[in-house]
């Protein structure tokens, strides 16, 4: 369980929501007040629900569950890759390709193609091709790496997904719900808590807020894996 303090959450700006006119009324229970037309989230609830999320992830990690981190916005992209790697998990940190989960069989074929091209690159096969063909393969390799590198070693659908920015990743959210994959997600004041299983009210725009919450969740996964049943 996380022992994160309210002062740390406050310092990271986790409590700052969106302009009040952009809110989703379903987030009302998590909102503390409104200041200068900006909604302020209830930090006590943020802390309690973050603790609940860490307990959930810790237990899942002990049971050897797999995790997929999803966050394609600029502020989250680097952090998503870093924290997924730190917890030996999977990630998608560039544009979500529709069907990444619901059309997993096709995605696995693209992953296999990525691995083939990487093997060709290591074997210096490109050097024996025409300039045009070598250029086309390098372009294809770079594109596949950009979108699939974080799930290259994922053998099957993940057990749990961790999402940054529900609004932006709504396609991924819908795929997870269709497949019955549990969703842990930061919820800003413009989000819909009904679409996720484990909500964490918080600022999903500020880098410091995303970093603090992601690191806390990742630590719980690492600790769980260290005490794997």
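-> sequence recovered:
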């Amino acid at each position: 369980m996380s022992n994160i303090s309210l002062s740390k959450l406050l310092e990271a700006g986790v409590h700052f929501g969106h302009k009040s006119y952009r809110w989703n009324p379903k987030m009302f229970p998590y909102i503390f007040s409104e200041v200068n037309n900006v909604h302020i989230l209830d930090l006590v609830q943020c802390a309690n629900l973050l603790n609940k999320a860490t307990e959930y992830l810790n237990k899942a990690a002990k049971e050897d569950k797999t995790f997929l981190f999803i966050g394609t916005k600029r502020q989250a992209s680097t952090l998503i890759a870093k924290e997924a790697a730190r917890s030996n998990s999977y990630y998608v940190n560039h544009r979500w390709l529709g069907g990444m989960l619901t059309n997993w069989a096709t995605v696995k074929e693209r992953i296999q193609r990525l691995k083939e091209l990487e093997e060709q690159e290591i074997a210096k096969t490109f050097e024996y091709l025409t300039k045009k063909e070598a250029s086309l393969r390098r372009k294809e390799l770079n594109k596949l790496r950009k979108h699939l590198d974080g799930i290259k070693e994922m053998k099957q659908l993940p057990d749990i997904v961790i999402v940054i920015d529900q609004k932006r990743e709504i396609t991924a959210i819908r795929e997870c719900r269709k497949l019955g994959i549990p969703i842990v997600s930061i919820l800003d004041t413009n989000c819909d808590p009904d679409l996720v299983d484990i909500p964490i009210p918080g600022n999903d725009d500020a880098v410091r807020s995303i970093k603090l919450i992601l690191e806390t969740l990742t630590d719980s996964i690492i600790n769980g894996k260290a005490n794997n049943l």
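The radius of gyration is 19 Å.
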